[in-house]
Write a structure and sequence with these properties.
By secondary structure, the chain is of the alpha/beta class. The protein contains 14 helices and 15 strands. It has two domains: about 180 residues, Rossmann fold; about 180 residues, Rossmann fold, CATH 3.40.50.2000.
């Protein structure tokens, strides 16, 4: 296969309709590969511009995937997240007699705990048959990729899938473009001119492990607001647990301290307005929001959980802490009172992100994977 002219079929359950890290990852990877001259087709169960929609239930979608693959005849079949789609990719490879490579990328950590109540939750039922089936399907792949080491560790620990050979390709971000007119409009709309310090956090409120982290941020503000009466926390994101967080704020009478922004398209401006970016999600793999904050040159405080330590080096490009309101409040106060440390962390984070965490760099890594047989053993 010639690297300059690959035909790639991307199979993803999430495309442009669903907000979140996997959508951002796949859409930017597709765009970068197309810019590099490759022919990329997106197959997805979601409706979306520039994609082939896979309709119906699981069985029908699998058949539909196989049919489209036989029509497209891709050199690479790249599956995101759903092992079910390995089957039609493998059948296509067998019956088309083509030297195509099958690649799967894992994006999210398995959830094995109720993070808001901290009660145990059994992992998704993986009985012996399902484990054998999963191993069989993964061994049909030429390469297995994960956005963090922590995902593979968790999958092997909780589901006994026994993934051994794999590549790690983190998420990325583009250079953030600031619209000064939009930023001033945001300042005016939320009356931010008179408030300082400002810190922000970004996360979809459909996952309890993200919401538990946002609750920690709110509780930390509660501890800090007497010393910093003009402190404001900006929370971007939306989802089914938003009402839960609003109740937490209401019960503590903190409506004047916390601003719920909902889903927004002004993340670069939000980061520019923030003194510190905070990410306390308790079960992250490779959070795109953290990487955006790195590109924005912001001092970052993050939970020492999941794959976050794989992209942030404690004391060098950010501060990693145990996720608690008390530790977050202490660390936040430390950075507010030590501007030199905050500036050093921010500069180091930006330099690392520009050097390592760009979509161009990620696409180049995938082009290497696409031509490498790295089967699960």
């Amino acid at each position: 296969m010639e690297q300059s002219s690959l035909k790639i079929a991307m199979i993803t359950p999430q495309w442009l309709k669903t907000r979140g890290g996997p959508t951002t990852y796949v859409s930017n990877l597709v765009a970068e590969l197309r810019r590099a001259g490759h022919e990329v087709y997106v197959l997805t169960s979601e409706a979306g511009e520039g994609a082939i929609q896979l309709r119906g239930g699981l069985f029908k979608r699998i058949l539909c995937t196989y049919r489209h693959l036989t029509i497209l005849k891709p050199d690479i079949v790249h599956i995101h997240g759903r092992a079910n789609y390995i089957l039609p990719a493998w059948l296509y490879k067998i019956f088309s007699n083509r030297k195509s490579n099958i690649v799967i990328t894992f994006h999210t950590m398995p959830s094995v705990k109720r993070f808001l109540s901290f009660a145990p939750k059994a992992p998704r039922d993986y009985d012996r048959f399902k484990r054998v089936l999963a191993r069989f399907l993964f061994r049909r792949c030429d390469s297995v990729v994960s956005v963090s080491e922590s995902i593979v560790t968790a999958l092997n620990r909780h589901y006994k899938i026994d993934i051994r050979n794999y590549s790690i390709i983190h998420s990325a971000s583009s250079k953030l473009s600031i619209n000064l007119t939009s930023m001033k409009s945001i300042q005016d709309h939320y009356a931010l001119h008179a408030y300082t310090p400002i810190f922000s956090t970004v996360g979809v409120m459909s996952w309890d492990w993200k919401v538990a982290g946002q609750q920690i941020c709110i509780e930390a503000v509660d501890l800090l607001r007497k010393k910093f009466p003009n402190l404001r926390l900006l929370i971007a994101g939306d989802g089914e647990f938003r009402e839960y967080l609003e109740d937490v704020v209401h019960q503590r009478e903190m409506e004047h301290c916390i601003i719920f922004l909902g889903n927004v398209d002004f993340i670069p401006e939000l980061l520019k307005l923030s003194d510190i970016y905070v990410h306390m999600a308790l079960n992250e793999a490779c959070p795109h929001a953290v990487i955006e904050a790195m590109h924005a040159g912001k001092p970052i405080i993050a939970a020492n959980r999941g794959g976050i330590p794989e992209i942030l080096e404690n004391g060098a490009t950010g501060l990693l802490i145990e996720p608690s309101a008390e530790q977050l409040a202490q660390t936040f106060e430390r950075l507010i009172e030590n501007k030199g440390e905050a500036e050093r962390l921010a500069q180091n984070a930006a330099e690392y992100a520009i050097s390592h965490l760009t979509w161009e760099a990620i696409a180049k890594k995938y082009l290497t994977v696409y031509q490498t047989n790295n089967c699960v053993s």
